Amino acid sequence: MTPADLSRTVLRAVRRAVDEGVLTGPVPDSVQVGRPGPGGSGDYATSVALRLAGPARRSPHDVAHILRTEILRAGPGLSRVDVTGPGFLNFTLAPGSRAGLVRAVTDAGIRYGYGDALAGTTVVLAPADEPRAAVWAETVVRLLRAQGADARTGGDATERLTVRPVPACLAGDLFARLGPDAARWGLLRPAAHDRPATGDDLLVQRETNPLFTVRYAHARTRALLRNAAGLGIPSGDGDPRDPGARPLLDTIGDHPGVLAAAARHRAPDRVARHLERTAEAFLHFQETCRPLPAGDEKPSAAHRSRLALAEAAGTVLAGGLTLLGVDAPEHL
User: Fold this and answer.
1) What is the pLDDT, as a whole number, of residue 285?
2) Bridge partners, residue 84, by sequence
3) First to last CA, the chain
4) How many CA atoms lie within 13 A of 208 on its CB side?
5) Residues contacting residue 131 through CB under 8 Å, at least 6 positions apart
6) Residue 1: is it exposed, middle or buried by C-beta count within 10 angstroms (0-12/13-18/19+)?
7) Is residue 78 helix, strand or coil?
8) CA–CA separation, 84 vs 88, rounded Å?
9) Reduced to 3 states, what is the DSSP secondary structure of residue 310?
10) Within 10 Å of residue 262's Cβ, how many Cβ atoms?
């Protein structure tokens, strides 16, 4: 079960509760599902009960318990639904449900995380001549379209993006000096109000350079799959039980929400930061949960599941880089 699946499950539970007269008030258009906050539990959580409490004229805690009953009636893939704090719903995925997340990535490919959250929305961004503003607008249009919006740049603009520009003394040769990939990363990775990165450290081939780390992690996922194919090892069900796999599974599960938020807030820097987290989680995972057998060790179901997770991580990295307009190399 992916966060998007869980969001739809909760929304259906709200709709059933309203249709059956257990709750009163409007049904929201969407339900946000994220990581549990302090005091929470499980894999994911939502605060939707707090939103519904006012219109329903019930306490958030009561609303949460009503929704808990509805969710458990038709919530495959969940082993627990708990109510914490004033009315937060906390979800613990059932064993094996993480395999569904990996399969969702495999099925969608680099379009994993695309959705219809902004379907029916039209956005026309003002064209820009300044290098950073132009790259930012182009990338935001791509993010908006990935969430179902009708987006473009044009003279009939409905919005104008405001970003901190590249200093005039550096703007002229920026792309020639750094190349398109490093230049774009340097313009998109800092938040809009922060100074863009324009230094030669964007070209450094070591872990101190986040762009290198992201692209290296992607290349490592592809190398693992090539080596596995050479050894005749297919990927498996993508449900590794290793504790060290949890951070990587979490970042992969977060990807759709990050893309939706980046589109809504016109903030491609959120995608870049998420790719950094995903790359770091993958590099740690491959060291602690080796996807390939070592020495005389025979391939096992665990290796096949780890390979599937590595493939999913590479797909997320490639998809995010593509949205940013940055190349995702197979070899590095």
Assistant:
1) 95
2) 88
3) 33
4) 5
5) 165, 166, 171, 174, 175, 187
6) buried
7) strand
8) 5
9) helix
10) 27
Element (H, E) at 47: none
H-run or E-run covering 182: helix 180-188
Cα separation, 325 vs 240, whole angstroms: 32
Cβ-Cβ contacts under 8 Å for 296 (sequence gap 6 or more): none
Name the percent of the chain lying above pLDDT 90.
71
Pairing status of strand 150-153 against strand 122-125? parallel
Q: What is the pLDDT of residues 150-188, one digit of tens each?
A: 999 998 999 999 999 999 999 989 999 999 999 999 999
Amino acid letter at 249?
Answer: L
In this structure, are residues 84 and 40 in contact, taking their beta carbons and an 8 Å threshold? Answer: yes
> Does residue 188 contact residue 273 with C-beta atoms inside 8 Å?
no
Backbone dihedral angles phi then psi of residue 80, each to the nearest 5 degrees: -145, 145
Gap between the Cα atoms of 162 and 271, Å rounded: 18
Judge whether 43 and 93 are in contact, CB under 8 Å: yes
Q: 234 pLDDT exceeds 90? A: no
What CA–CA distance (Å, rounded) separates 199 from 186? Answer: 8
By CB neighbour count within 10 A (0-12 exposed, 13-18 middle, 19+ buried), where does 159 fall? Answer: middle
Question: What one-letter code names the amino acid at 191?
Answer: A
Residue 5's pLDDT is 83
- Dihedral of CA 263/264/266/272: which sign? negative
CB atoms within 10 A of CB 211: 24
Q: Please name which of 162, 170, 272 lies closest in space to residue 213, comparing C-alpha atoms.
A: 272
For 35-44, 233-242, 257-266, 295-304, which range has the lowest pLDDT when averaged over its residues?
233-242
Q: What average pLDDT does the structure give for the chain? A: 92
Strand partners, 152: 124
Q: Report the largest interatomic distance among the alpha carbons of the chain, rounded to a whole angstrom.
A: 66
In DSSP terms, 44 is beta-bridged to 91
The residue behind tokens 């991580």 is 313
